[in-house]
DNA primase large subunit PriL
Amino acid sequence: MQRLHARYPFLEAARDAVATEAVDLATVVEQDGAVVDRARERVVTAVEDGETGEPRREPRVELLSYPVARVLVSMIGERVLVRRYARAEAATAYERFAADFDDTTELKSVQSTDLDLETLLTEFDLTDAVQATADGYRVGVGTYLPLAEDQWGDEWRLVNRSLTDGDVPVTEDELRSLLREAVRGRIEDGLPFDVPDVIAASLEDEADEVREVLAELDLTREIDTVVPDLFPPCMKALLDDIQKGEHLPHHSRFAITAFLANIGMSTDEIVDLYRVNSTFGEDMTRYQTDHIRGDTSPTEYSTPSCATMQSYGDCVNKDDLCERIPHPMAYYEERIDDADDDDLEDWREGEGEGDDAEQSASGD
Ligand code: SF4
């Protein structure tokens, strides 16, 4: 059983096992270097690689390193760390349970480290909400929605699903993805928490290391990545209108231009992005962009908030994430943060290159 808990430390039973095993977490962090080292590795690898690193052979070390890793994450307390850490733990759990579910060897029945679908559904109180069908599963819509809201891709949106009697049909792979979200939610739940001083004092070195790793990654740099697919719906719509050559009222043009400037685009790049049709007003764009960026005015302007966008009628096509954020920049930041690094191809490294070359050639 200990091995199962070490593989899946987020299970309720694993939490109980920790309570039995570690009578006093303060003593563990003070005296058990192997546990602390594995905890540090869990968090550092989560930040750097989106995984939790190589599990230790000793189940006790592996199991106890999980609550200690949560302590470390809480000591730093940054939202971006909580999100990255929970995502990495959930990704590791997903890999493991997918392998367990696919493991059809005869030995399986005696392998206590394997987790089966039924156990995982029971763990998250999902047995009533998830029913097997001939070609997959049906998930009650009330269960589906919160688990699908952070999933990538339009196919997860309810409007693109065929609802049957209040249930959403999903494939087996999709059900696994929803379970990964359930795991992520549980791991994120309650983080960060207040760490007693006596525990924090023993983990200062490890916490400093995690802080350094976070600082080196310079997570704020990511917001400077230009990935139009991840733009908030309002900005996508405005950019679309500009590229179609439609005339936008001043407040709309201001909003999209300020947004693009705020995510780090230069005036030339914004001009390039707008320059898709012949009616494009380059001079006006240059003037307005320089002004917003503060190059020709005393102020650098910020992107309007969702409330302002709404009052001007510029808030359109709201999606689930929109319900949880107050600002288009927060929307974009969260989308960028959630995306796999592979999906983060900067527009400027793709389509923008030709235009850049043209511009340099023309001496612009
Ligand atoms: S809620 Fe905010 S981010 Fe979403 S579409 Fe409206 S203005 Fe844009």
